[in-house]
Amino acid sequence: MSVTLFIDGAAGTTGLEIRERMAGRSDVTLIELHNSRRKDSAARAEALNDSDFVILCLPDDAAREAVSLIRNDRTRVIDASTAHRTADGWTYGFPELEPFQAAAIAEAKRVSNPGCYPTGFLALIRPLVRSGVIPVDWAVCVNAVSGYSGGGKAMIADFEGVNPPSAAHAYALGLAHKHVPEMQKHSRLAHPPIFMPSVANTYRGMIVEIGLPLNMFTRRPTLHVCEAVLREAYADSKVVRIAAGDDKVVQIEDDAGTDRMTLRVCGNPDTGQARLIATLDNLGKGAGGAAVQNFNIMAGFDPVAGLSL
């Protein structure tokens, strides 16, 4: 069986990543527009309505406009922008988030692709909140470092220009990053997490880290308990893996160039302090790879077809 797919925004960073993963697949026929017609509303509307599936790789307002151009009840949409990640009527496209999430994605007509930072954060925290290890009213702090490709063409041009920025810089210092509502909603925490992102002078890759004082929780869970919860949550996943927490060094490039994500539980058992660490590719499981995984699930294909694990 072959289905038709239109990538709206195929010339952007995420769009190019998705096209690369679709290359050579006999089960997908890409509907493509000539460069001269990419921004033609009529041409885009025709492609959107002629496709079985659409993946939107657009700024938020353009993504909303694209959805409004779809006039039929047949075309199914995956939106890689931020526009619909907390919107009613949209299914959150993180198949590993809940035991029922992949089934919900398979049936959905509208799926919102997760953000790269929230993917690492939610993978670490949601099973622990769901199991009661982390109290829902805990004030969670999360630190994250991303490769500069996460900022799109403008940031790529800055870092690869004549006078690139420093080796790493922190941003969103006002604690109002656009990913915070998504992180709170889908973790089901009572309070917004304190999110501290930064960008490193490397093209791709990501580290997301949460520090936890386990000795302050009512149940006083151990590092072993935390790791066991994560292992159980992702036991059947081909995409999310659990590594031993005794590595001496975790690098931002550990999962770069792949569509997998690696989770670790590190820390000091004597003090009851934990470091939960996720590594992933901000363009892989954090963007293009996640979109392809969602597409595969919705189309009834092997969920990891076209992915690099």
Description:
With 309 residues, this protein is of the alpha/beta class. The chain has 2 domains: 3-114 and 287-299, NAD(P)-binding Rossmann-like Domain (Rossmann fold, 3-Layer(aba) Sandwich), CATH 3.40.50; 116-283, Dihydrodipicolinate Reductase, domain 2, CATH 3.30.360. It is built from 9 helices and 13 strands. Strands 8-9-7-10-13-12-11 form a 7-stranded mixed sheet. The chain has a 6-stranded parallel sheet with strand order 2-1-3-4-6-5, with helices on both faces.
What is the number of helices? 9
**Quantity of strands, as a count:** 13
Into which percentage range does the β-strand content fall?
Answer: 15-25%
CATH architecture of the largest domain: 2-Layer Sandwich
Question: How does the SSE layout of this entry go?
Answer:
Blueprint: E1 3-8, H1 13-22, E2 28-31, H2 41-50, E3 53-56, H3 60-68, E4 76-79, E5 91-92, H4 101-107, E6 110-112, H5 116-130, E7 141-147, H6 152-159, E8 168-170, H7 180-187, E9 194-200, E10 206-213, H8 223-233, E11 240-242, E12 261-268, E13 273-280, H9 284-299
Parallel strand pairs: 1-2, 1-3, 3-4, 4-6, 5-6, 7-9, 11-12
Antiparallel strand pairs: 7-10, 8-9, 10-13, 12-13
